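TASK: fixed-backbone design
INPUT:
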């Protein structure tokens, strides 16, 4: 069955990074995700690569190694797009290094790949993405581009260590409804992306309010589970739940909701 992780921001009142790790492990999650940035004091916590010493990296690798998988989310300020692609890839270097040091198998980064962008084809993107792919191979990780369009472009690159992270909640946001409709729904979109899909971010959405408890919004998780089985999905998924909108109990319920959908499809 697909392994489920929990993205660390803050869990209820838990802010300390090690406390969040322990809570996630005790709650039965298979994996863990966290941001490659310090976060906001008193609000959420991540790991700032430049402030993480060799000794701390060694300690964290041991703690994170207790999970089946780990994901690092690149800082929000890094968004790969055609006009600033070179500088964006350069900014990712410390994140890839952190992933290698901590044994994180996935690095998620936001990207703006447009089907209508002439620069998103071979001339503008392929060579830089080949370079990023080589860097990911060297770091023993995979780079998952979190995108809401341009899926065919990424599929066309055919890269071994650069693929798609599909944030299912974002696909249901008002600004992306037409894209989802054109794809024939979330299940058909997953089937279309196929093997280029290398990670998932899971949360629910109701109107404009996203990152809410799974099973309380509009996302069709049963359809998602069926599509993942259809493509033989062998990768992982991370819950991304807003701690101001989801209680620790809601985080646990969300994980069980997803697992239930996956079990029902498998046994059905």
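OUTPUT:
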């Amino acid at each position: 069955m697909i392994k489920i992780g929990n993205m660390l921001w803050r869990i209820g009142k838990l802010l300390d990074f090690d406390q969040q790790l322990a809570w996630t492990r005790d709650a039965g999650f298979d994996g863990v995700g966290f941001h490659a940035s310090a976060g906001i004091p008193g609000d959420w916590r991540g790991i700032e690569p430049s402030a993480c010493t060799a000794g701390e990296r060694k300690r964290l690798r041991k703690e994170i190694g207790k999970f089946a998988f780990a994901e690092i989310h690149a800082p929000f300020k890094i968004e790969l797009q055609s006009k600033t692609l070179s500088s964006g890839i350069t900014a990712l270097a410390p994140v890839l290094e952190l992933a290698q040091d901590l044994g994180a198998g996935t690095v998620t980064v936001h990207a703006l790949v447009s089907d209508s962008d002439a620069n998103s084809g071979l001339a503008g993107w392929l060579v830089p993405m080949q370079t990023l792919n080589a860097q990911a191979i060297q770091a023993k990780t995979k780079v998952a581009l979190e995108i809401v369009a341009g899926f065919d472009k990424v599929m066309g690159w055919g890269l071994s260590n650069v693929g798609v992270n599909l944030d299912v909640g974002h696909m249901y946001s008002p600004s992306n409804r037409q894209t989802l409709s054109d794809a024939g729904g979330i299940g058909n979109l997953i089937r279309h992306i196929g093997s280029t899909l290398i990670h998932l971010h899971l949360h629910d959405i109701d109107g404009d309010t996203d990152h809410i408890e799974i099973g309380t919004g509009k996302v069709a998780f049963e359809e998602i589970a069926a599509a993942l089985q259809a493509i033989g999905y062998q990768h992982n998924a991370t819950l991304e739940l807003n701690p101001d909108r989801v209680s620790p109990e809601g985080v646990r319920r969300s994980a069980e909701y997803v697992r239930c959908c996956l079990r029902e499809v498998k046994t059905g």
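COMMENT: The two ends are 14 Å apart (CA to CA).
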